[in-house]
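Ligand: adenosine-5'-diphosphate. Inputs:
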Amino acid sequence: MSDGFRLGVFLTIVRPEEKQILQAAEARGITVERLDDERMTFDLERPELPVDVILNRSVSHSRGLYAMRFFAHYGIPTVNTADVIERAGDKVLGSLRLREAGIPTPRTIVALTPEAALIALDQIGYPAVLKPPIGSWGRLMARVHSREEAEQIIEHKVALASPQHSVFYVQEYVPKPDRDLRVFVIGRTVVGAMYRHSSDWRTNAARGAESEAFDPPESVRTLAIRAAEAMGGGILAVDLMEAPSGLVVHEVNPTPEFKSLQAATGLDIADRILDYAAEVARR
Ligand SMILES: Nc1ncnc2c1ncn2[C@@H]1O[C@H](COP(=O)(O)OP(=O)(O)O)[C@@H](O)[C@H]1O
Ligand SMILES: [Mg+2]
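Predicted complex:
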């Protein structure tokens, strides 16, 4: 059966996730237009683009964000929207949304200069976590144990001097068990969840954490859906940690990978993503 809509997939490379999405689309008779984020250009006038909805799968935050703004400008709905990518893809803006929505989240202080970063780290106290505001896979994050270590890490960031390193996102270190929680939300529904176990304090699947399916109780489902809605809703993977005070949401991912979730749960996430894209195309 054909879903009768034309899907644009804005992507960088075909990872296992994109492969599954493309295969599932083919199986459903959905016409797919692949849009290469490294080659595409954006005219102010709408180009000839035979699609009803765009799915963002770019690995680049800025490319995904600008591109979704252009597609909206052309009158083409996108999954996720540029607003959602802007908020959730930037940890600073994401934390503001979580806080505004009253969702428990680790104590966080943002600093805009290296000098202020040291003050923020002292304010949070040690150990503290320092993250680039935009990034994933646990990359370029540091657990900082002392003022001395803080000074050394900041010195490196100053020497490397890229925009990535000029905003400092400082967070309390949450003494979680050797795992965190990933809850995958589509629209108003939790489609699947898992624990990610690791001996590394960064429990990202991309760093080799082991995934274990998890059937979240109603309270966790509600919390994850609230976090997704705080970003504006769509297809969002909510990351949570078990803090001594209870669950805290530390980030919401707007362009999530789902290979390990799918492997741990046996769920067909790609198919659920297409269901949602079809729904957005019909709106
Ligand atoms: N404040 C923290 N305290 C303890 N562990 C943390 C903290 N923040 C992140 N982590 C660990 O690091 C991982 C990656 O952090 P996250 O904020 O999700 O960044 P990324 O976008 O790179 O995934 C988390 O899944 C968690 O295991
Ligand atoms: Mg994460």
